[in-house]
Amino acid sequence: MFYYISGKIAHKSDSFVVIDASGIGYRLYASTKTLELLGGEGDFAKLYTYANFKASADVFDIYGFATKEELDLFIMIIGVSRVGAKTAIALLSNISPSKFALCVATNDSKYIAKNTPGLGAKGAERIVLELKDKFKNFDMGDVTNDDAIEVYHGGGTEQSEAISALIALGYSQSQAKTALSGAKGTVEELVKIGLKNLMKG
After folding, report:
1. If you ran DSSP here, which 8-state letter would residue 144 be given?
2. How far apart are CA 84 and CA 37, in angstroms?
3. Looking at 135, 162, 186, which one is the last position of a domain?
4. Which of 12, 13, 96, 178 is most buried, taking the most CB atoms under 10 A from its CB?
5. Same domain, yes or no: 82 and 113
6. 167: pLDDT confidence band, cut at 50, 70 and 90?
7. Does residue 147 share a domain with residue 106?
8. Domain count of the chain?
9. Which of 88, 118, 135 is the last residue in one of the domains?
10. How far apart are the first and last CA of the chain?
11. Are residues 10 and 46 in the same domain?
């Protein structure tokens, strides 16, 4: 219905923004990440939009996105069975696009469930399962060390978590284990040690 809406910001809350476009105030629900990128009242804003219309539930809400990438991810997420728009916005508010792609590409539903209020383990598993093919060609080279370290927690020991992080960055399990052989430290320190050893060849 609407591709984007632009105009002056008339009001901004912690869950939506009102944009005055030619005298009409459009309320656009948005992720906290998008809201943080916007200015204050009176500033110009342009948001890509998605109209969520459900006649049976008397719902007609508009969602706004600072980038086309975030909009595309939102559409992918709500395409998963039993995942609604509010849940998708909660996910995008707490997980960056690169971390989300990393989770899906590496079957890590636990991080998604932990960081998406109201989703639950089953919902996170459905997201990973149903979106897996869409991320099969995801370039791990775009994932930062910090992203990999933050996503992979829960491996049991610092060593196993560091190995998982290195695998997420594109190394094989055997390469990661060899690079960390005998090393000790925090997950962050171990990843740095592992990367240094891997770069030596």
Report:
1. -
2. 24
3. 135
4. 12
5. yes
6. confident
7. no
8. 3
9. 135
10. 54
11. yes
Token pair of 131 as six digits: 């979106």
Tokens 């998708």, residue located: 88
Tracing tokens 């706004």 back to the chain, one arrives at: 64
Domain match, 100 and 117 both? yes
Q: CA separation (Å) from 180 to 141, 169, 185?
A: 21, 15, 10
Q: Is 43 exposed, middle or buried (0-12, 13-18, 19+ CB in 10 A)?
A: exposed
What is the per-residue pLDDT across 170-196, written as a single tens digit (0 to 9) for each? 788 888 889 998 888 887 788 888 888
Q: Mean of the pLDDT values across residues 85-90?
A: 95
Please tell me the distance from the alpha carbon of residue 32 to that of residue 99, in angstroms, as a whole number: 16
Q: Where are the alpha helices (DSSP H) in the chain?
A: 32-37, 68-78, 85-94, 97-105, 109-114, 120-131, 145-151, 158-168, 173-179, 187-200
For 184, the token pair is: 């000790």
Q: Give CA angle at 80 (75, 82), nearest 5°.
A: 115
Distance between CA atoms of 193 and 91, rounded to whole angstroms?
A: 32
Q: Are residues 144 and 195 in the same domain?
A: yes
At 15, which amino acid appears?
S
Instruction: Kindly state whether residues 20 and 52 are assigned to the same domain.
Output: yes
Please give the average per-residue pLDDT across 120-131, as a whole number: 93
Return the structure tokens found at 86.
């509010």
pLDDT average, residue stretch 128-154: 66
Does 18 share its domain with 60? Answer: yes
CATH code where residue 45 lies: 2.40.50.140
